[in-house]
Design brief:
Helix content is 6%, strand content 40%. It is mainly beta. The strands form 25 sheets. Strands 31, 34, 37, 39, 41, 43, 45, 47, 49, 51, 53, 56, 59 and 62 form a 14-stranded parallel sheet that branches. A 9-stranded parallel sheet has the order 42-44-46-48-50-52-55-58-61, with no helix packed on it. Strands 1, 2, 3, 5, 7, 10 and 11 form a 7-stranded mixed sheet that branches. 39% of the residues are buried.
Length: 1518
């Protein structure tokens, strides 16, 4: 239970300043504190220097704590003089020193307000006042208390509130999604309420996924209902919040916490916010630094719920409510890894792939590389399959720096593996290798297959849910179609008509198959279920008054009888009985949360179950026309009518309690009643086989009152069960009478068992134990009456009609009547004596205790405690039943401890009662202790368990049920408040359950933990099986090790040894989930041995080795291919072709091997390896020497290897064929700067090699020009070129086949010289002709041209207006008057631009005509003036800490010098002020105003002609 804080306005008792300590000044000034939430009142306007009003530097933090814990608030207060601190609360007094304690620590200056053993009534809003003579500061803080268990003392208060119609306070705060332990049994096809809650908080894109998860296929119906529910929910939310948005479902963060977010504005800031998990409220804190698991913090409008220290049990359905309205719901699921990521070995610049498969669809995993989160980008690709089960991380373009540990996280589950990047040794030094297109890594398993299998499992579960929903709807449709109009059902207490419902089988003797009839469910005011009965004979079945959330069900009958389940006003279940004849079964008046069930009858008798309680009132089961009633069940218990086989009558009536009132079971026409069950206990009528009568009546208590079982016409009553115990009637086999009545206590009162017509009573069971009537074989009487004690009172066993009494049972021991074989009475007779006295007992605080003294005769006695006489009252009951005296303490307290004495005449007996508690552990300590302790082999394991110091406390440690003793490798330390266990040098066999037991005379309590000792695993289990062996693959299989060393095996390492070699080579490793390996690097026909190691985080296991070597495949060789043919030859290559073999021996050919033999040698050399076959029937042989002759042969390769070789080919010579010279991609133009060397390179092809000749302008070249001829290329070189070397050079190549020519133009030039002077001339308006003298290089270079640039006074930029001009003139257009123009002319050739030639200025200034003054002298004008203030300074009053601008305007010529003064001190050079002067505007800027910045500011402007100044005042506000 969670008690909400009640926040009220105004000052209640104990709140605020009292008359003694506070003078209650009302006049003051409100001030703002730096700490939010602190209210400050200052009594005077201006504080004296050095003095200050109180303020909080640390305010108390709101607290939510469990009942019984230590609660405290801390605050730190400042002020001069030192403030006085007082605490108060809104609704109560804090003057009780036992409950409230105020403390002050002068070292830390902390004021502490402590509440030891906090109670629910202390939940409130608390206030802390700090006061001195200058003011006071006040802050409020809220304390919430989580109640533990059910408090009986609250029942009268809640009943009073119900009577006043104050239902809201009575109802427990619960979520609409109830906890699993309290979920009602779901009907076939019923939709989980979580479905609608999730939809209302989800995005539309998630609707399909949620519907598939819950098996909903009717989307139209779903959307219609969802819109209706959303409208209702939005109306409810609008009463408490506004602007609800940005709902983010729960997710796992990178720091290992889980959180969800939403944004809203509270209409009332005092509204309470609650968190639920699976329908149960969970406590939380609002501070990040708190040690609680759950935290809800507010950032602006955003509310963030977070959860740390994630465990598997944290998975569930989370909801956030404001007051009673749900705002957000989200489902937190845990997933596991079916296939984990494996180690990847990649070459540099290769891509690496990590793959995994998870157990449930997840849209995104958290990937980490070297402890840093990874995101999709240029470096990483994150891929997810369509079913969201397979997840991949691709590390692109791996470099050596990328190596490290990579991890995948799904919630609290994670897996990691190494990325090993090997440098490319073949890469040239200093150069970056090319990017590779291959990928390294992968899981080594068929991920698609694993994902498909998991998807099939998920689909199967989804289909099963769909089928259940479909079947439920079809059943409802069939029930409506099969409804018969003549079968009606009326409800005694109901007002509304319901639909047809399904009646469940009541017991094994009732109707075999259930049928659907027309039923009335009246007064269906609640969310429960009112069910009419099932009848097969036109009878009448009513399930009425279903006012509660429970179930009211009419009985099932096969004849014309009537079955009523009426008045079901409670949340319980009222069920009518099942009858097979014309009998009557009623389950009426079920006003409580229990279950009222009518009996089952097979004849025309009536069965009533009045079921007014929250329990279960069930009518009896009858086979004939008898009557079975279970009526009036007003309580939360169960009132059940008896079961009868004939026309007898069985009643279980008046069950007003939360217990169970059950009518007896009869086989004849007898009567069985279980009536009046007013308590939470169980009142059960007896079972009879004949026409006898069995009553279990009046069960007013939470116990169980059960009528006896009879086999004849006898009568069995279990009545008046007023207590929480069990009152049970006796069992009889004849017409005798068995009563178990008046069970007022929490114990069990049980009537005796009889086999004849005798009478067995177990009455008045007032105690928490069991009072049981005796067992008899005849008609004698066995009574176990008035069981007032916590002990056991058992009637004797008789074989005849004698009487055996075990009465009064006043002691905690066992009072047992004697065993007799005959009729007389078993009495001790003679002088009075004590047959059973008192002894020392230990009673548990808050529990009942009972002491019993048995005399041998019926005589009076008195009870004394510590010499003082005792009387009934004040929690003590003293009773006497014949010769049995009982003292009952209803709820033991510490004051009840003492020496008790019973005196009867001269006889006395005494015993000591000691009251105490069973030892207990703190929940937080218990949670910490329950976490497993994990150590490695050889390390020490330590356990520690704190507990409360107690007297007579025995502490014991156990391992796997065996007690541990101090000594050897075990060290046990016992301290007053804790105990420690140390296990030294742990072995693997030390793993197991560690248990600590605290024991005292009142009981024992235990706490368990687990010790896990980690070691390297055992060797894999053999033998090694050969799964497959072919010419290219050997697959082996093994079994996991028996002992994994305490931690899961991560992978297996496989090594191989070739037969005849001593070296073992590591082939690789496989994941722990895969116990097989395929060796693809084998040679056909060779034998190999393998050994396997298991690896876990602790190391490698011993190896498992194959017993015998395994050969790769079998030998079947192919026939010879056709004779190779030479297609073409060159000096570097010979091309071959051949035909496939005619006989491949039935084995597919995978390729060919080509061999060559040089002429005049006998050795054949293979051109390709067998494991690198040539797949085509042609091949280019490049490994040849020019001019040499070769012959070739070919062998076909299959799985067994290379077959017979073909006949050799004809001899072929490696030389080129004759060809005419031709030039390859020559360049026909070349420009060279004068002075540089000229190199003209021409490549050619010709066979035989040609004769090369170079010409210049068709003339032989000069001797200083060099020609360099190499194979396939000729080069002309001019060492130092001149302009005269410009010409057309021709190369001529000629051989015996033909000749070829090619011309190359070579231009030797230099940067041109600038043009001559530029002249401007205007020909027409708006046009200017620009002309210049040609460049001296114009005649030498025919490729020289000119460029003209223009500049004007408007744009002030040079721009090219003419290019590639081969003339010496240019006409400029759009020349405007009043604008100056300039022109530049450049000469340009293949080498670049020359320096420019500048033109004269053209435009306004050049055409200006000077004007003479004609002797008139002009008067000289002076602008000098003294300084003056144009805009003065303004008054400023900024708050402390704010920024400030202060400006004024000054004029003067010459420009005056401006100085700033604060309180007559110049501040121009003070760095705290930023001062500027821009065109007479003088500014000063203060970044953060301080208190000492206040005062008079003055600006002084001075020049040679005078001085001006202005001033203002600056006041700094708090």
């Amino acid at each position: 239970m969670f008690k909400r804080t009640k926040v009220t306005d105004g000052t209640a008792t104990g709140q605020g300043p009292d008359a003694e300590n506070w003078d209650g000044k009302e006049v003051g000034f409100r001030k703002k504190s730096k700490v939010p939430g602190v209210m400050i009142t200052q009594y005077i306007e201006k504080l004296p220097e050095g003095k200050s009003h109180p303020d909080f530097t640390r305010k108390p933090i709101a607290l939510t704590i469990q009942e019984g814990k230590f609660a405290f608030f801390k605050a730190i207060v400042t002020g001069d003089p030192k403030p006085t601190v007082v605490w108060s609360r809104n609704n109560g007094d804090v003057s009780d020193p036992a409950r409230y304690q105020s403390k002050y620590d002068p070292n830390s200056n902390e004021h502490t307000f402590e509440m030891p053993h906090v109670k629910p009534d202390q939940a409130d809003t608390y206030k802390c006042f700090a006061k001195n003579e200058y003011g006071q500061a006040m802050v409020t803080v809220v304390l919430n208390v989580i109640e533990v268990g059910f408090k009986m003392t609250k029942a009268p208060q809640q009943q009073a509130e119900v009577a006043n119609c104050n239902f809201k306070k009575v109802l427990k705060r619960r979520s609409k999604v109830v906890p699993k332990a309290e979920e009602p049994e779901k009907k076939e096809g019923e939709i989980d309420p979580k479905f609608w809650e999730l939809l209302m908080s989800a995005d539309k894109k998630d609707y399909e996924r949620i519907c598939a998860e819950f098996g909903v296929t009717d989307f139209r119906w779903m959307l219609k209902k969802l819109n209706e529910m959303k409208r209702e929910r939005e109306e409810e939310q609008a009463e408490f919040v506004k602007n609800l948005s940005d709902l983010k479902p729960i997710h796992i963060n990178a720091d290992g916490t889980a959180s969800f977010e939403l944004e809203f504005d509270l209409l009332d800031p005092s509204s309470s916010i609650y968190l639920y998990k699976d329908g149960e409220m969970i406590p939380y804190t609002k501070e990040l630094g708190d040690k609680m698991k759950h935290c809800l913090r507010k950032v602006g409008r955003k509310y963030i719920f977070s959860m740390r220290d994630l465990m598997p049990e944290d998975a569930g359905f989370y909801q956030l409510d404001v007051e009673d309205v749900n705002m957000f719901s989200t489902d937190f699921k845990m997933v596991d890894f079916l296939v984990k990521i494996q180690e990847v070995k990649a070459m540099e610049r290769e891509d690496a792939v990590f793959e995994c498969v998870i157990s449930a669809p997840l849209s995104k995993l958290m990937w980490f590389g070297k402890n840093m989160p990874l995101e999709q980008g240029d470096k990483y690709d994150i891929e997810v399959s369509e079913d969201k089960l397979i997840h991949r991380l691709v590390v692109k373009d791996c470099m050596v720096v990328d190596k490290g540990i990579y991890a995948a996280c799904a919630g609290i589950k994670s897996c990691n593996a190494w990325l090993v990047v090997e440098a490319d040794k073949g890469a040239p030094k200093g150069k970056k290798t090319a990017r590779k297109t291959t990928r390294a890594g992968g899981s080594g398993t068929d991920l698609q297959k694993v994902a498909q299998e998991q998807q099939q499992i998920l689909d199967k579960e989804r289909e099963e849910r769909k089928e259940k929903i479909k079947a439920a709807r079809e059943a409802a449709a069939e029930a409506a179609a099969a409804e018969e109009p003549e079968k009606t059902a009326d409800s005694g207490a109901g007002k509304d008509k319901g639909a047809a419902v399904k009646v469940e089988r009541i017991d094994k003797t009732s109707v075999a198959a259930t049928t659907t009839v027309a039923g009335d469910s009246g007064s269906g005011h609640s969310a429960g279920k009112a069910s009419g009965g099932a009848k097969q004979d036109g009878s009448h079945a009513d399930a009425g008054g279903g006012h509660s959330a429970g179930k009211a069900s009419g009985g099932a009958r096969k004849d014309g009888s009537i079955a009523d389940a009426g008045g079901g006003h409670s949340a319980g279940k009222a069920s009518g009985g099942a009858k097979q004849d014309g009998s009557h079964a009623d389950a009426g008046g079920g006003h409580s949360a229990g279950k009222a069930s009518g009996g089952a009858k097979q004849d025309g008798s009536p069965a009533d179950a009045g079921g007014h309680s929250a329990g279960k009132a069930s009518g009896g089961a009858k086979q004939d026309g008898s009557h079975a009633d279970a009526g009036g069940g007003h309580s939360a218990g169960k009132a059940s009518g008896g079961a009868k086989q004939d026309g007898s009558h069985a009643d279980a009536g008046g069950g007003h309690s939360a217990g169970k009132a059950s009518g007896g079971a009869k086989q004849d026409g007898s009567h069985a009643d279980a009536g009046g069950g007013h308590s939470a206990g169980k009142a059960s009528g007896g079972a009879k086989q004949d026409g006898s009568h069995a009553d279990a009546g009046g069960g007013h208590s939470a116990g169980k009152a059960s009528g006896g079982a009879k086999q004849d016409g006898s009568h069995a009553d279990a009545g008046g069960g007023h207590s929480a115990g069990k009152a049970s009637g006796g069992a009889k086999q004849d017409g005798s009478h068995a009563d178990a009545g008046g069970g007022h206590s929490a114990g069990k009162a049980s009537g005796g068992a009889k086999q004849d017509g005798s009478h067995a009573d177990a009455g008045g069971g007032h105690s928490a134990e069991e009072a049981s009537g005796g067992s008899r074989q005849d008609g004698s009487l066995a009574d176990a009456g008035g069981g007032h004690s916590a002990g056991k009172a058992s009637g004797g066993a008789k074989q005849d009609g004698s009487l055996a009494d075990a009465g009064g049972g006043h002691s905690a021991e066992e009072a047992s009547g004697g065993a007799r074989q005959d009729e007389p009475l078993a009495d001790a007779g003679g002088e009075p004596g004590i047959t059973s006295g008192l002894s020392d007992i230990h009673a548990i605080r808050g529990q009942p205790a009972e002491l019993t003294v048995k005399m041998n005769t019926d005589c009076d006695g008195a009870w004394f405690k510590d010499g003082e006489p005792l009387k009934s009252g004040g929690g003590i009951s003293i009773t006497k039943d014949a010769n049995i005296h009982k003292l009952t303490i209803h709820s033991c307290r510490d004051t009840d401890s003492g020496l008790l004495r019973f005196v009867s005449g001269d006889l006395s007996t005494e015993g000591r009662i000691t009251v105490g508690d069973v030892p207990e552990f703190d929940e937080d300590d218990l949670h910490k202790f329950s976490k497993p302790v994990i150590v490695r082999v050889g390390q020490n394991a330590a356990f520690k368990m704190p507990f409360q110091p107690q007297e007579s406390l025995t502490v014991s440690w156990f391992k796997d049920g065996t007690e541990l003793k101090d000594g050897g490798g075990v060290k046990i330390v016992r301290e007053p408040n804790h105990s420690r266990l140390l296990l030294r040098d742990c072995l693997r066999s030390d793993s197991g359950e560690i248990k600590i037991q605290l024991k005292n005379p009142f009981g024992a309590v235990e706490a368990t933990s687990q010790l896990i000792v980690l070691d390297r695993p055992g060797p894999p289990e053999g033998p090694v099986e050969t799964v497959e062996t072919t010419s290219s693959v050997i697959e082996i299989k093994w079994n996991p090790p028996k002992d994994d060393g305490g931690s899961a095996v991560t992978n297996y390492i496989i090594e191989r040894q070739e037969r005849g070699h001593s070296l073992w080579t590591k082939l690789g490793d496989v994941s722990a989930e895969k116990t097989s390996f395929r060796d693809r690097n084998v040679t056909h026909g060779k034998k190999y041995s393998y050994r396997i190691y298991a690896e876990n985080p602790q190391g490698l296991s011993d190896s498992l080795e194959t017993a015998d070597s395994i050969m790769a495949g079998i030998m079947i060789l192919s026939g010879p291919p056709g004779k190779p043919k030479v297609v073409s030859t060159s000096k570097t290559c010979i091309n071959l072709t051949w035909t496939p073999p005619e006989d491949d021996k039935g084995v597919p050919i995978i390729g060919y091997q080509v061999e060559k033999r040089k002429k005049d040698t006998n050795q054949w050399l293979a051109l390709n390896a067998i494991n690198e076959p040539i797949e085509d029937v042609n091949y280019a042989v490049k490994d040849v020497t020019e001019g040499a002759e070769y012959e070739f042969r070919v062998s076909a390769i299959n799985e067994s290897g290379a077959g017979d070789a073909s006949p050799p080919s004809a001899m072929a010579c490696a030389k080129n064929p004759n060809m005419r010279p031709c030039f390859k991609d020559p360049e026909d133009f070349l420009v060279v700067r004068a002075g540089n060397s000229v190199r003209v390179k021409i490549s050619y092809e010709a066979e035989p090699p040609p004769h090369i000749t170079w010409l210049k302008d068709d003339e032989p070249i000069a001797p200083w020009i060099n020609v360099i001829n190499t194979e396939g290329m000729s080069q002309l070189v001019i060492p130092s070129s001149k302009r005269s070397d410009s010409a057309i050079y021709t190369i001529k190549a000629k051989n015996s086949v033909g000749e070829a020519f090619f011309d190359v133009e070579v231009r030797v030039t230099d940067e041109p010289k600038c043009p001559g002077p530029v002249e401007l001339e205007q020909t027409v308006y708006g046009k200017v002709a620009v002309s210049w003298v040609p460049s001296p290089d114009q005649e030498l270079d025919d490729r020289l041209y000119y460029v003209v640039s223009q500049h004007d006074s408007n744009t002030r930029m040079w721009k090219t207006v003419a290019d590639r001009l081969f003339a010496n003139t240019y006409t400029a257009h759009n020349i405007l008057p009043g604008i100056e123009y300039h022109f530049r002319v450049y000469a340009k050739n293949d080498m670049g631009l020359s320096d420019p030639s500048q033109s004269p200025t053209w435009g306004a200034n050049s055409n200006r005509v000077p004007i003479s003054s004609n002797g008139v002298s002009s008067m000289e004008i002076s602008f000098e003036r003294p300084p003056s203030i144009l805009v003065p300074l303004k008054v400023h009053t900024p708050p402390k800490g704010y920024q400030l601008y202060m400006t004024c305007a000054v004029r003067g010529c010459p420009t005056p010098n401006v100085s700033w003064y604060l309180n007559n001190t110049c501040i121009n050079s003070d760095k705290n002020y930023y001062i500027t002067n821009s065109c007479g505007v003088c500014s000063m800027y203060i970044l953060r105003v301080r208190e000492n910045d206040g005062g008079e500011y003055r600006v002084v402007a001075v020049n040679s002609l005078g001085k001006a100044e202005c001033s203002t005042k600056l006041t700094v506000r708090d």
